[in-house]
Amino acid sequence: MTDKTSPTTFADLGLIPTLVERLEELEYSQPTSIQSHTIPYLLEGRDLVGGANTGSGKTAAFSLPILQKIYQQDKPNSRRGNTVSHLILVPTRELASQVAYNVKSYSYHLRNEIKTVAVFGGVSVNPQMLALRGGSDIVVATPGRLLDLVSSNAIKLDQVQTLVLDEADRMLSLGFTEELNNILALLPEKKQTLLFSATFPEKVTTLAQHLLNEPVEVQLQSAEASTLVQRVFSVNKGQKTAVLAHLIKQHQWRQALIFVNAKNSCNHLAQKLSKRGITAEVFHGDKGQGARTRVLEGFKSGDIQVLIATDIAARGLDIEKLPVVINFDLPRSPADYMHRIGRSGRAGEVGLGLSLIDYDDYHHFKVIEKKNKFRLEREQVAGFEVDDDQSEAYFAPMKPRAKPAGTGKKKKNRNQ
Ligand code: AMP
């Protein structure tokens, strides 16, 4: 049996040479923690609940064992009707196409034997229906579009052998609970189920308890995450844009991803930066799928240097070697803070997660620190020092503050 504690190569984990060869081509020199802690168990067919930071390499962790299972167990062309054997559910369109892209890349040498299809909303359904015809080995789907396809008989879920719930916390917080339950009801009882989530609120724990059968539990504080440096700058109220423009010009970052809390703030900030000579593109839920894809491609390729986004970009997106994420607005939820900054410093790359806070943010940033169990030194930007009566010390309560009404309940933000 494989040593599950200290394997050093993908072959040690039990992967077949065809897959190992492909990983070498992709220059994956050794497994990440999540991969070495999960792949051996998944190859044995165990259920799994995995907590891992974003960027930890979990797509390969769950998809490589599936590919191996198909290659070893399913005879080529055993696909039938409109069935699917392995179903990966994800919360967003972008993640669906990204995961499908990676799965196809990992299965490059098995491409004649393995059919992977991505289905997600916001684009025409017809090509997806056509692609599903004759059955699929792997389908990567967002819940809503999957159910649409089920109701039009374009896909049948009764032959699913493996179910992966990726970013389960995000799926539930985006309001997919009902869709998820409807999908689960269509799946066969006997299957291997994997649930990945960066955070474990009660809803996720309950789902895991109902769904998983004696799961292996892997909770990683990924070592890779330590390459991400966090910094926080105190600024005077009304000076965030000036400070941001200054930082962008000073550091000349190859790319910068800037988060704000509302769709219209994206456009406002882009206009204000433009007046300061900085061109920025925006990415939010009001943009059509075509525009979202174009902007993302432009940002990934480096054609777009500054991207201003709402939290729809906070989860799962993999932008290679993204040097910096900036919180222009703080996210309401401390968990989203981790997801946002996790866009940088992925897969062991050096990254920077930077937040700008003014006196309206001081208390909330403390909550973010407390919930995420870190504490940062407040810095100031030279030339933009904070006035005494705007400093955090000035606002520090003499006595412990009473809990403000309404904290603890996360509101669904439809303004992204
Ligand atoms: P994920 O968390 O699956 O989105 O992966 C984050 C990034 O890490 C992606 O760009 C992957 O291509 C990359 N990656 C995954 N596993 C490895 C590995 N073992 N070695 C190097 N890069 C990896």
Report what the structure shows:
The chain is of the alpha/beta class and 416 residues long. The protein has two domains: 11-219, P-loop containing nucleotide triphosphate hydrolases (Rossmann fold), CATH 3.40.50.300; 223-386, P-loop containing nucleotide triphosphate hydrolases (Rossmann fold, 3-Layer(aba) Sandwich), CATH 3.40.50. Helices cover 37% and strands 16% of the residues. The chain is built from 15 helices and 14 strands. The protein has helices spanning 17-25, 33-43, 58-73, 93-106, 126-132, 143-151, 168-173, 177-186, 202-211, 240-251, 263-275, 289-301, 334-341, 362-372, 392-395; strands at 48-51, 84-89, 116-119, 136-141, 162-165, 192-197, 216-219, 228-234, 256-259, 281-283, 306-309, 324-327, 351-357, 378-379. The strands form two sheets. It has a seven-stranded parallel sheet with strand order 3-4-2-5-6-1-7, with helices on both faces. α3 packs across α4. The longest helix has 16 residues, at 58-73. The chain starts with 16 loop residues before the first helix and ends in a 21-residue tail after the last helix. Mean pLDDT is 86; it is low at 1-7 and 399-412. Adenosine monophosphate is lined by residues 28, 31-32, 35, 55-60, 318, 320, 346-347.
